[in-house]
């Protein structure tokens, strides 16, 4: 028996049916060529079954189930591999996008820093200008303080002098007050301003007489005895007033000086207040300018720090950028060729199991020629082993007892990746040993063929009964 199916005319229509709504990253024309190519693969494998039988007398075949498995396997594998490539591509492209953003950020920060440095220079110039004005007005205020202090000291000296003179005058006035009041009382009807030193000198000889007193005057003169008291009052008033008047005059002069000094002091203090107000204004302007300068300085420093951090990141990842760029291109190419790569991979999983290494190569060569003729993109040097498995898995298989040649690895891929349970023809028991080691931890149940045959017979007897 060469094969059960050598031709399967409806295959192309079936693949078109199952793939029409399937999302694939290719053009509509490429998708239609893949649909056509699947049918060609099915027909080509049917022919290879006949050739295989002619050469090795080993019968194998393909069926509609094989074709349906091929189509479903293509959809499953393409979806899985496309997701893997997209995840890796997105990671790389995200990294490249971040580097691009960082580069743009550095450029923006550089422009921002340039603006801030210009603003900082202007702020420095403004602060220096205000500082000069503050220095000038501070010096003027200090000079004014000195002038005010001089005026204040002068006024204080006058106050101190007047205080002393006033105390002396008041003391003398207080002492002379009783006599002066008595004299003034005696001279109420007399113009005291007409009393002169000449009048007092004319009266002095009389005052020296022993009997020039009120008792003698009363005895001799009777009612005019009061003139005696009056003349004495004139002398006493003149004597006291002669000493008090200069004191009063000096006190009046000093008070005028004090009034003038206090006016000068008030004026100086007003000028000092005006200078201080001007100083406070420019001082506030200076402090505001310094705050603006400090704010700009801190902003510029933050901007410079961000730029340095981003520049360091870009510099550190310069080598990675080149590698990521190449990987991004590779992922883009993988996405483009994935429709063809998965077609080869799933055809291999679906059809190559019964064949030896020679026919594996023949089938792959035929499939690649067919795909090239239909302009279906795929990697020319596609390594199916690398696409369908990885190095750690292969090493694990080797530790589990299988050889490391390509045919053994391919067979292992078919066993683990194919959608249907495989039948192993294993005369050297390598596959058996490998399966036992691989599945032993999963409570593998081993049934001998003799036991299986007896079980089936017993089952048939039960059914017939």
UniProtKB/TrEMBL annotation:
Domain Dynein heavy chain coiled coil stalk as annotated: residue spans: 186-365
Gene Ontology terms describing biological process: microtubule-based movement
A GO term, aspect molecular function: dynein intermediate chain binding
Coiled coil listed as a keyword: yes
Keyword check for Coiled coil: yes
Domain Dynein heavy chain ATP-binding dynein motor region: 395-451
GO cellular component: axonemal dynein complex
InterPro entries for the chain: AAA_9, DHC, Dynein_HC_stalk, Dynein_heavy_chain_D4_dom
Coiled-coil intervals, chain numbering: 99-133, 251-306
Dynein heavy chain AAA module D4 domain segment(s): 15-76
Recorded family membership: Belongs to the dynein heavy chain family.
Protein name: Dynein axonemal heavy chain 5
